[in-house]
Amino acid sequence: MEGDIQDALEDLGFTGELLEEGALTIATQGECLTADFMALCVWLTEQLNCLCTIQEHVSEKEDEETFRMEMSGLLNELGCPHSQLLGVNGLASQANRLLLLDYLTSELQALKMIGGEEEEKMEIDNQAASPALDQLKAILHALDLPQPSKESTVFDLFTQIETKVRELLSKAPKDHLGQPLLDETLGVKQWSKVEEINSQLNQEYTLRRSMLLKRLDVTVQSFDLLRLTKTSSGDIRDKTQCEINKIMMGKMAMEVDEEEEETKFKGAGHIKVHIEVHKEVRGVAGVEAGERKVVTEDIFL
Fold first, then answer.
1. Closest residue by Cα to residue 76 from 161, 191, 153
2. CB within 8 A of 160, min separation 6: which ones?
3. Whether the predicted model's global pTM rises above the 0.70 cut
4. What does the alpha-carbon distance between residue 125 and residue 242 come to, in Å, rounded to a whole number?
5. Reduced to 3 states, what is the DSSP secondary structure of residue 175?
6. 3-class DSSP state for residue 118?
7. Is 220 part of a structural domain of the chain?
8. Residues 104 and 1 reside in one and the same domain
9. Which of 84, 128, 222, 233 has a CA positioned 20 to 30 A from the CA of residue 244?
10. DSSP characters for 125-158?
11. 109 and 12 in contact (C-beta within 8 Å)?
12. How many domains does the chain have?
């Protein structure tokens, strides 16, 4: 792909060291975006702006994070069909960076072929194209700022947000926010690791929550075991109709049909218990007292 992009750049009139063999590969490598790569993207967007009207703009002088946001806004406006390029993490890999250059050069070649006429932009779903759009709208709503229009640029939106936040902070009490926990700026790779850890914690929380709810359900149903009594002959009588107790006792009701029995068994859960009934005789007014103890050995959730 690198060779095809270099040929297209040469046909478009680009001159520079990136046309040399292997230079484009080096410019698109690494965790961070290189200055040569960003400069080439700025040149391509400027050429596109000369042939069609583009509201979004990409500035070479801004930092890498701003460049990513501005490029995402530009691709969204152009109706880029490559959804993996949209968002601030769209340029994290070398393959996506080369795909971006291939897309921009192809668009520029197409505009030159049709004489600079602006084509009808592709109708796309903004929410599907930019997952951060809902979050941005929520921020604007919380700050009582107007929602973005088609003419709004990324730079204008974040300028409004920054101005509003500074205004609110100036009215807040002293040391309202306190000291920041993290002073350094995280990179794309570090943010990816943070998201991975957060996903693992969410899974662990969901598992523990399910376990606690299941244990609570089993504990509540186990109170029916108090209705089990022991007769003078030593036989155990079952005075409950609770299905979970019948599973514990090892005797499901035979009067229900096979389908209903299977449904109730699945609904009761996979539970294995061991019941120990201890009897103790106390000579208080000739009354025999019984102590029963239920020990759960294995609970499969």
1. 153
2. 140, 145
3. no
4. 53
5. coil
6. coil
7. yes
8. yes
9. 233
10. -HHHH-TTHHHHHHHHHHTT-PPP-TT--HHHHH
11. yes
12. 2
CA 14 from chain centre, in angstroms, equals 40
Q: Which domain holds residue 196?
A: 190-226
For the chain, 301 residues long, the average pLDDT of each consecutive 10-residue run is 81 81 83 84 84 76 76 83 81 86 86 61 47 78 82 79 88 77 78 88 91 85 60 45 48 43 40 38 40 37 38
Structure-token pair, residue 186: 């995280």
Looking at the structure, do residues 96 and 200 belong to the same domain, yes or no? no
Give dist(CA 88, CA 188) in Å, integer: 9
- Alpha-carbon distances of 196 from 85, 193, 201, 286, rounded to whole Å: 20, 5, 9, 67
Phi, psi (rounded to 5 degrees) for 237: -105, 140
Judged by DSSP in three states, 274 sits in strand
CA angle 100/102/108 to nearest 5° reads 100
Q: CB-based burial of residue 244 (10 Å sphere; 0-12 exposed, 13-18 middle, 19+ buried)?
A: buried
Evaluate whether residue 104 is within a structural domain: yes
Same domain, 103 and 196: no
**How remote is the C-alpha of 166 from its chain's centroid?**
29
- What are 290's strand-pairing partners? 279
Q: How far apart are CA 293 and CA 162, in angstroms?
A: 65
Alpha helical stretches, state H, 52-85: 64-78
Q: Which two tokens stand for residue 202?
A: 């969410």
C-alpha to C-alpha distance for 60 and 98, rounded to whole angstroms: 18
Q: How far apart are CA 198 and CA 299, in angstroms?
A: 28
> Do residues 18 and 27 lie in contact, with contact meaning Cβ atoms separated by under 8 Å?
yes
Domain annotation covers residue 23: yes
Question: What 3-state DSSP class applies to 267?
Answer: helix
Residue 132 resides in a domain: no
Single out the residue in 87, 115, 143 at which a domain terminates.
Answer: 115
User: Which of 208, 226, 244 represents a domain boundary (last residue)?
Assistant: 226
